[in-house]
Amino acid sequence: MTGPLSSTVDVSRTRALLESEPRTRLIDVRTPGEFAATHIPGSYNVPLDLLRERKAELAAKHDDPVVLVCGSGVRAEDASTLLAAAGLGRLTVLAGGINAWDQQGAPVVRGTGKWAMERQVRLVAGSLVLTGVLASVVAPKMKWLAGLIGGGLTFSALSNTCAMARALSLLPYNRTPAQDAPTLLAALTADDAPAR
C-alpha cells in the first residue's frame, strides 16, 4: 500500500498499516507530559506547539506513511493541516486518538506522574469555577468567574477548540526542551526515522 492515505484511519486500519508498511511513522502531537503518561509503543513525540514554532523546518526527506496521534484526534487534525501545508505527503490521523487506541485494547506504554491535557483542563476549569462560587459568598461579582469558565467550556465544545488547553501547553511542565527540538523533528522529517 504505497498510495495516498485517507484523512483519518481507525485503530484496526492503523494496526494493519503498521504491519503492511513497517516504515510507517506514528507521530504523537500531544505534550511531552501527556506522551510520558501514555503512548503507543514505537511512536515518536513531536508536540503540536513545536510543529507550529518550527514550521519552516518541516520539509520531509521521505515518503513514509505518517499517522498523527493525539488524545482524541483534534490536535492531530490541526497538525495534519499544518504538515500538509508544509508539503508532507501520506498523512493521516488516528480517529479517536490514543483514547480510541486504548479503549480497543491496543498496546500502550503507561508512565507515571504526568496528566493528560484533558485532565489538566478539568482541574483548572473546576478549580476556577469552585473558586468563583465560593468567593461569591464574600464578593458577589465573583460568580461571573464561574460564568466565564462555563461560557468558555461551551464555546470550546461548539468550536472543537480549547483555549485553556492551548494556554496550559505553554507551561514548562508541558513543553519540549529547546535542545530536543531538532531530534524530535527528525522523527517526522528525516529520511530514516531515529531509533525508538
Automatic annotation (TrEMBL):
Pfam family, any one: YgaP-like_TM
Source species: Saccharopolyspora shandongensis
SMART domains in alphabetical order: RHOD
Rhodanese domain ranges (all copies): 20-110
Protein name: Rhodanese-related sulfurtransferase
Statement: the UniProt record of this protein carries the keyword Transferase: yes
Molecular function (Gene Ontology), one example: transferase activity
Keyword Transferase part of the UniProt annotation: yes
Keywords: Transferase
Alphabetical list of InterPro entries matching this protein: GlpE_sulfurtransferase, Rhodanese-like_dom, Rhodanese-like_dom_sf, YgaP-like_TM
